[in-house]
# Entry
Amino acid sequence: MPTFPQGSIELRVAYAVNPRLPRMTPAQLQILLQATRDTAREHFGLELRFSPTDEIPIEALFQKIPRKNERDVRKQIYDFKSGRGDPGRLARDFGQGFRQMGEPLAGMIEYVKPHVEIKEANYEALGAALAELQLQRIESWRTIRALDGGPIIDDSPYNEYMMWLALGYGEVPYELVLTNQILASVEHVYPSVHSAIRGGYSNGITTYSKSSRFGTFSIWSTFAFTAEDKWARQMRGGENYTFEEAAQLAGIGATHEIGHQLFHFMHPYGNDACVMNPVSLFAYRAWAEELSAEDCPIGSNPEMKPGAGKFHY
Ligand SMILES: [Zn+2]
# Structure
């Protein structure tokens, strides 16, 4: 049983910037971190301190990925860019992945119900339906243009979830890596209901890190909060954010990853009071309004018990 932090904790912070994509300003990052601090105090009883934010070009960050780990994770990436992926295999792998992870089936089916019909109440049917939905919806992300006019998802591997997992094996001395990069991809492993309904989009990842103080680090993307295109707005349920609100909501949302990192909490799906309940699509304003630390104290449900989650090291 790992020990979980109490009291005052320092996290080292970086902002990894892809110059092709919209970014948050230093003033917005300040608002973001303050919101994370406030939310962690309220929901987790923790006093977070942050190092000054190191700004790094994403290209330099990705050079830290050890080549061996890159080769390993590439085998698990579903290639939607060239169209060479096998959708049948993906459907089977999703079903198997959901079964192995063993989160309660009924809660997941309830969570995805507004987006897709699950024909039978079993992991295989859930996997097949979500694999198809994810492949269909990631095409919408591909239509968005970057600042240079090219597609936001290009041939670079920065959008690939698996590459960020591989990053944890490099020399990356941070507990929190903020980035303006869009994290949207498809992989044969670790399917997740909330990522599938967003077209393979992840707002954040908490995963093994060899250089982190706590054994894992959190990656948190600001992309969804600053994107102004039609598809992203639709994913936000029509919500539009000001400069300040975007940063504020991104900071509240980042606390979810901190909960994974410091307490290994899981997802109490459908429990709207909990910061560990994943947001529906990107409707962060509606999500944040429902949060209530009083109604979701640590340990109040199985997913909110410290040590509930197991990391894939
Ligand atoms: Zn999560």
User: Anything to note?
Assistant: Residues 118 and 125 are 6 Å apart (CA to CA). The two ends are 15 Å apart (CA to CA).
